[in-house]
Amino acid sequence: MSRIEATLSQLRRQGRKALIPYITAGDPQPGETVRIMQTLVAAGADIIELGVPFSDPMADGPVIQLACERALRHHVSLRNVLEMVREFRQQDTQTPIVLMGYLNPVEALGYETFAEMAADAGVDGVLTVDLPPEEADTLVPLLKARNLDVIFLLAPTTTDDRIRRISQHCSGYVYYVSLKGVTGSAQLDATEVAQKVAHIHEITALPVGVGFGIRDARSAGMIGRVSDGVIVGSVLVDTIARYQDKPEALHLALSDILRPMREALDELAS
After folding, report:
1. Which of 129, 150, 182, 192 has the fewest CB within 10 Å, making it most exposed?
2. What is the CATH number for 45?
């Protein structure tokens, strides 16, 4: 059982929902990433999605695009991100880490080299936004052979046949994109999300994490009520941008966003 599966299984037994924050590695400074990850865990994160900076993040809105630009100005590469995970693992051997990014950096490193380095560094899962299941037959077996979960995106427009196909390759959890559009979109329809997540659960036994549009405790609680976990990205990345020159204030601000979400999710179990 992978670290992701073990974490989600434990939460399910407790009647609790997963809180999964996303940050971009190397933003605002490479030296801050591990400390930010530790702050997120202290504030209640169950799993961390760590974004790999890329020059053309097509699924991401302007907030995360700018985060990638800030990280790339510091020349943060996929190898650097793996070293950050390795450093994080020196103090935290429990919190699952999912690398989220695009296929180009993985191809540049080499599929087998990437799989070996990711497993060795302590990565638990990989979400490659632009890798469709039809083209995953080379990379996925290499990752799964090293007990790395492979996570795929589902959209509001994903057909039932495609959900089944994705589920055959996917492990850990599926990431349901709650909105049509890019990250950071503001309009979230909880009723529509509930209907779609319930339908996904009819097709796959995998846990469903929901992202895009979750910005505060209220939206986290609404989505946590109907899903297995909530994924929070743009509001955290925007906070990093606003406090990028004030490290101490940055960590306090991140905690102030995440802790109320944790409390809102835990209230669902009471």
Report:
1. 192
2. 3.20.20.70
Domain housing 125 = 3-267
Integer angstrom CA distances of residue 163 from 198, 200, 224: 13, 7, 21
Show the CA angle centred on residue 115, arms to residues 122 and 27, nearest 5°: 60
| Residue 263 designated active-site | no
Catalytic residue among 32, 60, 149, 228: 60
Q: Which one of the listed residues 27, 46, 49, 238 is annotated catalytic?
A: 49
Q: What is the pLDDT along the chain (270 residues), one digit of tens a residue?
A: 899 999 999 999 999 999 999 999 999 999 999 999 999 999 999 999 999 998 876 667 789 899 999 999 999 999 999 999 999 999 999 999 999 999 999 999 999 999 999 999 999 999 999 998 888 899 999 999 999 999 999 999 999 999 999 999 999 999 999 876 544 445 677 889 999 999 999 999 999 999 988 999 999 999 999 999 999 999 999 999 999 999 999 999 999 999 999 999 999 986
Domain count, the chain: 1
Write down the residue that tokens 């943060």 correspond to.
Answer: 76
